[in-house]
Amino acid sequence: MSTPIRIGIIAGESSGDQLGAGLVKALRSRYTDALFEGIGGPKMQSEGFHSLFPMDRLSVMGLVEPLKRLPELLGIRRALYQHFLKQKFSLVIGIDSPDFNLGLELKLRRQGVRTAHYVSPSVWAWRQGRIKKIAQAVDLMITLFPFEADFYRQHGVPVACVGHPLADDIPLQPDTKAARKQLGIDEGAQVLTLMPGSRASEVEFLARLFLDTAVVCKQQIPDLQVLIPAASDERLAQLKDILMLYPELPCHLLNGQSHVAMCAADVVLLSSGTSALEAMLFKKPMVVSYRIGKWTYALISRMLKVDWVSLPNLLAKESLVPELLQDQATVEHLSDEVTALFQNQKRAHFLKQRFTELHESLCHGGSEAAAKALSDLLESPLA
After folding, report:
1. Every domain range in the chain assigned CATH 3.40.50.2000
2. Where is the signal peptide (predicted)?
């Protein structure tokens, strides 16, 4: 009997957990006896993945905030490195979380372990010098978007563009009526979905800002209904505590169900990140916002090389959706943009058309295409 192949995967947040679950499922269809270990969340674990550490220990953001947890993070990375080497893993895949994963991938590759990175860092947007480290750290970069793959080809890094798995999972024509029926919401209601992020720090920065915005919007739209999907049990508890401060604002707080909540919405107010892509795929008008620590923002903003931060705008190469970041993220600005979207049906129709075009451009096979690229890597001769 041959020894089962061992594949390591490290995902640091809920979007990575979702990608990782699809990847584990697709790889297992090719390697039925494979063992999958590393760090992952509930979706990956439901596919038979063994997580060596809780995923939320990696869920830190920015440049300054992770320094507070640096000893713990270095300890986790050291333990993973030793485990993957000792157990003779054939392949280790970092999913996003580049500040954590690239250093691990680099050390493992130097020891002869094949490595891949799934979801490109925003190296094309800022800190472009990182491309040198990436070229040394990975045997394969797997990107979600075509413009990212072009950047890696220009720098001689092996790359596979697989599109975004969500583009294949989410139908081109979302069923808003069915989503509202599932949530017990009237078909003709005015619905605003709030998505303040999946990390504790994001919710801390954005939840009250979004809820204050919803209060102002409800004053102008009296029959407004508000949905808030919590990304995890921890975020559910955090949001419950915050909502106690808003007894005058009726909200439907959901445990998960983010896709249903977006599908049911007329407008989505969300934190910049994967949720903006999801709202685009559900063809929903949106307002994108973000706040982080002021010193982190000061550092990042000086290094940005792009005109936009949200994926709909980056993919379209134009300002399709409003982006209100940091000091521009005020209740007044956000409520003005949200109410304008509720009132402008012509704009909603235009966005639906553009979002459909962008959706179609991202259908490249997703998890199955990523598994094919990784199996090709596994079966190629070692360099």
Report:
1. 6-163+364-379, 169-361
2. none
